[in-house]
């Protein structure tokens, strides 16, 4: 899956997409980046700016 215009999606929509993929398709964060075919730095920056960070124990993004 390729998310075009990632910068136009709100962080809330983006975290929902990411967490759904993590729950259903991806065993970890690296698999998510590959599955969505997105730049890891861009995703991390966008989510961090809105208070989300990846929790490897739960394999999902959560609010800080």
UniProtKB/TrEMBL annotation:
Domain of life per record: Bacteria
InterPro entries, A to Z: DUF4250
Protein name: DUF4250 domain-containing protein
Organism, as annotated: Shewanella sairae
Phylogenetic classification of the source organism: Bacteria, Pseudomonadati, Pseudomonadota, Gammaproteobacteria, Alteromonadales
